[in-house]
Amino acid sequence: KNIGLLTLLFAGTSSLISFKYFLYYLFKKVIIEIVKKLKQWRKSAGHIYNINGTSETIRNETVITERIKLISVHVPKHLKPLNDDQFGHYLAGLIDGAGHFNKELIIIFHSLDLSLAYFVKKRLGFGKVRKIKDKDTCLLIVTADKGIQKIINLINGKIRTENIYNQIINSIFINNQCIERLDSIENKNFTFNSNKNFKNHWLAGFSDAHSNFQIKIIHDHNKNTEIQLNFHINQKCNNILLLIQQFLGGNISFRKKDNTYDYNSISFGSAKKVINYFDYFHLLSNKHINYLKWRKAYIIIQNKDYLCLANKTGLDKIKKLKDTMN
C-alpha cells in the first residue's frame, strides 16, 4: 500500500510539473506574438519594405510591415488623350504646372521632352517651339489670337491653380488690348475648377510638368535595408497639394529653406493609388519611362519572393531600376 501511495504521489507531482511547464510555454509564446504585433503596429506608417532581419524577425527572415496590394504585371498600352475634353484637362494640368499667361502663352519643357512640346504644338495647330541655348529647356510659345482663343476654349473650367487662373483673367478677360480675343471664345465666363474629382487627364499633365518618381534604398546601422517608393511634387503653395493628398493619400511637408511645399506619396497604399491613376491616365513626357521602372519595382516587391530577396537578387533588380532613372 505504501509503495502504491508513493507511486501515486510522484505521478501526481510529475503531471503537475508538466502542466506548469505547458502553461509557461503557452504564456511565453503568446507574449512573444503580442510583442511582435506591437512592434509591427508601431511601424504602421508602413511604407518600408525590409530586406534583412530586424528585431521583428528570427534568422534574418524578410519582413514587410505593410500589406502590398496587388497590381497587374501587364503594362497598359500607352495612349494619348483621345478628344478635346481629355486633351483640355491634360493641357490645363501642363499649364498649371509649367505655363505662364501674359499676352502670350509660354509652356516650359525639359529638353528631354522636346517631342512632347511638338506634340502639343501640333495638337493646338498653333505656336512655335524654341530651344534655350546652354540650358536643358525648351519653350512652346503661342502668340496668335486664334491660338489663344483655342487654348482658352480647351482649358475653360479645367484650370486648378489660382496663379494661372488669375493670369488668364488679367491678361485675356480684363486687358482691353486683348479684348478682341474674346470674340471666338465659346464661354465668356472663364471658370475655375474646384472639383475634387481627379479622374481625368489633369494630374497627368501637371505631373509631366512638376513631379518625379523616386526609389529610395536605405541602409541603417544594423545593416538592415529599407525600400521606399515615392511619388513627389514640389510647389510654392500647398492648395493643390492638399487636393492631391485627398485623392492619393501621402503627406505634405514644408521646406523652410526654399519656402516651398513637398507632397510625398510615401506608403505602398498610396503607391498603389498612383499606379491605378497613371495606368489609366498616361504621362506623355520622359517621366513615363521613370514611372514604368518605378512600377516594376512595386511588382518585384508585391511578388514577395522572400528567398529571392534574401539572396539579394530582388534587391539588385530594384537597384538597377533606380540607377537607370533620370
Automatic annotation (TrEMBL):
Is-annotated flag, keyword ATP-binding? no
GO CC annotations on file: mitochondrion
One Pfam family this sequence matches? LAGLIDADG_1
Q: What keywords appear on the UniProt entry?
A: Endonuclease, Hydrolase, Membrane, Mitochondrion, Nuclease, Transmembrane, Transmembrane helix
**Can you tell which superkingdom this protein's organism belongs to?**
Eukaryota
GO molecular-function term, one example from the UniProt record: endonuclease activity
Question: Which InterPro entries does the record associate with it?
Answer: Homing_endonucl, LAGLIDADG_dom, LAGLIDADG_Endonuclease
Transmembrane stretches, start-end: 6-27
Q: Which residues form the Homing endonuclease LAGLIDADG domain?
A: 203-298
Its name, as the record gives it, is: LAGLIDADG endonuclease
